[in-house]
Design goal:
mainly alpha; 13 helices; globular
């Protein structure tokens, strides 16, 4: 087992470019967040800043830490990477209300000359409305999940470093798109009733349930690339596949059930609140 673990670490190198990008994003966010603090402590509270930084850390954990050394040996590790990149890290980053602190962290003249006119450009606004539409976000997430778990595409990502980066990037982008209608960070404006998100979350579990059920109950190894690699921790390829499926099934169920429960409580509270005391949403204050 020690030899197989050593063999997993041999091709792994520290991704310096990723570390630099994540550190730069963290510094920009913290710079903007500290600039916003004197004006109003309620715009971006400390817990949102902590959520943003934790999300960046989980991206690093998925693809920049030694954990990434085992993704070609263990499907369970590969699945954990997918969950971190597509489900957990994007949600935490969006909960950090990233746009306002990041804009305040950039040089003011740069924002006024380049960023602000770009945001006001009508084609960009139309593109933003399209990309943030729940139907598009749901389809993008489902396509990324199902597409990259087709055996041919999965094997291609394992055998090619370039396609591996494309796979991880598409999971991360799809994760941001998926969580955008749910979390609704500033400057998002919802055009659908909030109860619609409950249906959105329920339907999102279906592709995950089908895929994880197939991997759990299949009597053979679906991804043949894991048949001829060193096996750390003395786990068979089929048992590894079943463990990865169970991880996906359990995590997705819990992670989608949690916001659904919170939203249900908010909707019930809104129905019982007095008319002049509407519940406060984040986009109202950010």
């Amino acid at each position: 087992m020690a030899h197989s673990i050593q063999a997993a670490f041999e091709p792994w190198t520290l991704p310096v470019w990723l570390d630099l990008v994540l550190i730069l994003e963290a510094l920009l966010y913290l710079r903007g967040w500290t600039r916003l603090r004197p004006s109003s402590v309620n715009i971006v509270p400390a817990w949102r800043a902590a959520s943003f930084l934790l999300g960046l850390f989980l991206i690093w954990l998925a693809v920049g830490s030694p954990l990434a050394a085992f993704d070609e040996q263990l499907l369970t590790v590969h699945m954990a990477q997918h969950l971190l990149l597509m489900t957990i890290a994007p949600a935490l980053i969006l909960l950090g209300a990233p746009l306002m602190p990041l804009l305040h962290g950039l040089p003011r003249h740069f924002v006024q000359i380049f960023i602000a006119p770009l945001f006001r450009y009508p084609p960009v606004q139309r593109l933003g409305r399209l990309l943030s539409h729940p139907a598009f976000c749901w389809l993008a997430a489902a396509a990324a999940l199902v597409g990259w778990h087709v055996p041919a595409a999965f094997t291609l990502a394992l055998q090619s470093e370039t396609w591996h980066v494309v796979e991880h990037s598409s999971f991360l982008v799809a994760g941001f798109l998926f969580w955008w209608p749910v979390i609704q960070p500033w400057p998002n404006v919802a055009h659908e009733p909030r109860w619609f998100i409950l249906l959105y979350l329920f339907l999102a579990t279906l592709p995950c349930d089908i895929l994880s059920a197939y991997l759990s109950f299949c009597d053979h190894v679906v991804y043949s690339a894991y048949l001829n690699v060193p096996r750390p921790f003395a786990i068979s390829p089929l048992a590894d596949q079943q463990c990865a499926a169970a991880l996906m099934w359990t995590c997705i169920t819990i992670l989608y059930l949690l916001p659904a429960a919170i939203l249900t409580i908010q909707l019930l509270t809104a129905q019982t609140a007095p008319a002049n005391e509407a519940p406060l949403e984040f986009h109202d204050v950010a």
